[in-house]
Amino acid sequence: MKDILQMMAQIEDDVAQFYTKLHEMKALEKYDEIFKFMSIHSQHHSKTLHGIVDRYNDTPFNKSKYLAFVNKLKANLLNKLHDASDQDEISSLLEEAEGLLGYAYEQIAKYMKTRAEIMLDASQKIQKIAEEEYIHKSKVKEIGSKNA
């Protein structure tokens, strides 16, 4: 996902530079207000997108850590169950193993929730940019009509 966000930020950087170049062209100075407006808004979008990129944490999920943990948990449980002397001890060992597995799942859920929150925030900000682009379209038409 980070690569998509970086691409979008780059697009807005490029569009802002493009409008700045158009703004500087003598032959198009009649449309100066439009180009200035669009350059400023593209820069704002770029800043928003770069902020999302900076917030996005690309920490990969460490599957091997959890698989090793479960394998160790099973091996330890099997050894302890083999040496267990009564039903209460067996129950206690199984309870402990389930608690540890539950904790591992909580950590996985936390990892996923954090990434989901970041992506939800990113999608909302990107949707806002999309809506602003439609507003810009109307603004360009309005400014263009004044210059016609």
From the structure above, extract its key features.
148 residues, rod-shaped, 4 helices, mainly alpha
Map the helices and strands:
Blueprint: H1 2-24, H2 32-55, H3 63-83, H4 87-147
Helix pairs in contact: 1-2, 2-4, 3-4
What does this structure look like?
- By secondary structure, this protein is mainly alpha-helical.
- The chain has four helices and no strands.
- 87% of the residues lie in helices and 0% in strands.
- Helix 1 (2-24) packs antiparallel against helix 2 (32-55) and helix 3 runs antiparallel to helix 4 (87-147).
- It is rod-shaped and about 95 Å long.
Largest sheet: none
Q: What structural class should be given to the helix and strand makeup?
A: mainly alpha
- What's the β-strand tally? 0
β-strand percent reads under 5%
Contiguous low-pLDDT stretches (5 residues minimum) are: none
Name the helicity range: over 70%
Q: What is the CA-based Rg, rounded?
A: 28 Å
What is the molecular shape? rod-shaped
Overall pLDDT confidence: 90
Query: Can you write the helix and strand succession as a string?
Result: HHHH
Q: Helix segment count?
A: 4
How far apart, in Å, are the first and last alpha carbons? 43 Å
Task: Summarize the entry for a quick read.
The chain is mainly α and 148 residues long.
